[in-house]
Amino acid sequence: MSRRPPVASLRAFEAAARHASFSAAAEELSLTPAAVSQQIRVLEAHLGAVLFERLPRGVKLTEQGAAYAQPVRKAFAEMQGATEALFGTASRRRVNARASISCAALVVAPRLFEFQALRPDIEVRLSTFVWADGFGDGDADLDIRFGHGDWSDGRVTHLGHETALPVCSPDHAAALSAPTIEALAAGPVIQIAGSEADWAAIAEHNGVAAPAPTQVQRVDSSLVALQMAINGPGAVIVLESFAREYMRLGLLVAPCEARLPIQPSHFIVQRPRARAPEAAQAFADWVRSLY
Question: CB burial class (10 A; 0-12, 13-18, 19+) of residue 242?
Fold first, then answer.
């Protein structure tokens, strides 16, 4: 008997895995949630494996399901690319996306090529803002905003709870008397505007008595703070999502295990009448995978 899975079931699985939701996959594929669920059950029976955990609220990929989702997604992307290469590409749809300079530079831009490879039919124009409380008269289709999610000018999707952590260069970490919050606070500190209380808060949250920093260099963005930390002495408390790429590259390290939960977080806000709704939704779904 052929082990080739049914294409319709694979499509339902790929969409459900990407959205972590049968309902959202059904909306994308113009099916009912029950039809998506049935297609996935057909695939699970065909493979002899459970791909999703059915939870009281939503679904979650099993370990085997998560491993299977990656090659399935890649296969669909390759089929789409081959089709466009051989038979021509329709005009690319454009998505105008906005984010803060730090979010755009530190989270989205380093991996934007992945979305372009996955969806070559969509052109993303990424721009930045200092602070956005609404779309105004601009032409943005979606924003990535930092706050409490209390905007009323579009569909708001929470990207997950945020934590902050102290980071510094490997050389600065090696020169510390001890890898502790106290040692970091006693030395040069880079302070991001609006986060002046973070050193006291992280010390209290982790049950230590750290001194108030006295050697402080103040800057107005996480991007500037991280660039300073890479190239000189000093530690900065910054969102973990912002520091992640620099830490992966070995440019920054987290000398201690201390973390600070942050109440505001990042949200996607989608304009009600985007010029290309499916393309804007595809990009929004991809941004969710970054958090």
Answer: buried
Q: What is the mean pLDDT of the chain?
A: 91
Intra-chain end-to-end CA distance of the chain, in Å: 41
Tell me which residue of 272, 286, 271 sits closest to 119, measured CA to CA: 286
Q: Which two tokens stand for residue 1?
A: 């008997």
Helices (H), 95-167: 101-103, 112-118
d(CA 206, CA 152): 36
pTM of the model: 0.66
**Greatest Cα-to-Cα distance within the chain, rounded to the nearest angstrom:** 72
Q: Which pLDDT band holds residue 1 (cuts at 50, 70, 90)? A: very low
Instruction: Tell me the DSSP string of 17-65.
Output: HHHT-HHHHHHHHT--HHHHHHHHHHHHHHHTS--EEE-SSSEEE-HHH
Do residues 144 and 268 lie in contact, with contact meaning Cβ atoms separated by under 8 Å?
yes
Q: Are 275 and 207 in contact (CB under 8 A)?
A: no
Residues 185, 206: contact at Cβ < 8 Å?
A: no
Q: What is the pLDDT of residues 187-221, one digit of tens each?
A: 999 999 989 999 999 999 999 888 788 999 999 99
Which of 262, 168, 257 lies closest to 207 in space, CA to CA?
257
**Helix (H, G, I), strand (E, B), or coil: what is residue 184?**
helix
Contact 201, 259 (CB under 8 A): no
- How many Cβ atoms sit within 10 Å of the Cβ of residue 12? 26
CA dist 33 → 40, 109, 135, 282 (Å): 11, 34, 32, 19
